[in-house]
Amino acid sequence: MRPSGRTLNQLRAVSIETGITKHAEGSCLIKIGDTHVLCTATIEDKAPPFLKNTGLGWVTAEYGMLPRATNSRTRREAAAGKQSGRTQEIQRLIGRALRAGVDRSALGERQIVVDCDVIQADGGTRCAAITGGWVALRLAVNRLLKAGVISSDPMLDHVAAVSCGIYAGQPVLDLDYAEDSAAGTDANFILTGAKRLIEVQMSAEGATFSRAEMIELLDLAEEGVAALVAAQKAALA
């Protein structure tokens, strides 16, 4: 029995609300269980210097967690004067994931920055940020298309992410904090809507895992991402 009472292949409740902020070109609030992330996308008219005169655009991301997103207050990283290694790793992951779903030549020499701010954390914040970040990115690109700034849609496919793991000896989908903190194996899967793999993060936290168990978790991830893509489509409808 999972602590939440969910079945092994059951996602937490998912909701995606768009148009959350006034000024951002694209925004949404994604809630996956008790993990809530605000995602905004900002269009910048020029690409980074390393892409000058290449005709290619860029998608990047920044990630942060509010001080009381967790059980106890976490000091703001700005107050510490630097980002933690975890924050840097997560925002690079989000950027890589979102770029995988974009034709950068169709985007043209401009940059879209996706900001993901965790309001409340209960496991799977990076996965929620990627899934919600894609929606914010999609909305920002829609603005470019509607304004005629770009002529073809650079969005190649949906991108979504979900965590899986082996908890109490069983492969489970979408770990909350209680499961994540006690899982023997922990994994994050990032896939496209067509089930193409973008990135897999998988490690033995307390016990090694077999090839068969890895495939079981991938199967769960494909099922979970399909449900998340359906939620993205519903939010954008």
TrEMBL record:
Matching Pfam families, A to Z? Answer: RNase_PH, RNase_PH_C
- Per the record, the domain of life is Bacteria
Q: Which GO terms describe its molecular function?
A: 3'-5'-RNA exonuclease activity; tRNA binding; tRNA nucleotidyltransferase activity
Q: Give residues annotated as binding phosphate.
A: 86, 124-126
Q: Which PROSITE patterns match?
A: RIBONUCLEASE_PH
Query: Which top EC class is given?
Result: transferase
* Annotated ranges, domain Exoribonuclease phosphorolytic: 10-140, 159-224
Q: Which reaction does it catalyse?
A: tRNA(n+1) + phosphate = tRNA(n) + a ribonucleoside 5'-diphosphate
Keywords for the protein's UniProt record, in alphabetical order: Nucleotidyltransferase, RNA-binding, rRNA processing, Transferase, tRNA processing, tRNA-binding
Q: Name one GO biological process term.
A: rRNA catabolic process
Q: What's the Enzyme Commission number for this chain?
A: 2.7.7.56
The record's comment on protein family reads: Belongs to the RNase PH family.
NCBIfam families in the cross-refs:
RNasePH (TIGR01966)
- Its quaternary structure? Homohexameric ring arranged as a trimer of dimers.
As for what it does, the entry says: Phosphorolytic 3'-5' exoribonuclease that plays an important role in tRNA 3'-end maturation. Removes nucleotide residues following the 3'-CCA terminus of tRNAs; can also add nucleotides to the ends of RNA molecules by using nucleoside diphosphates as substrates, but this may not be physiologically important. Probably plays a role in initiation of 16S rRNA degradation (leading to ribosome degradation) during starvation.
Q: What is this protein called?
A: Ribonuclease PH
Record organism: Gemmobacter fulvus
The taxonomy runs:
Bacteria, Pseudomonadati, Pseudomonadota, Alphaproteobacteria, Rhodobacterales
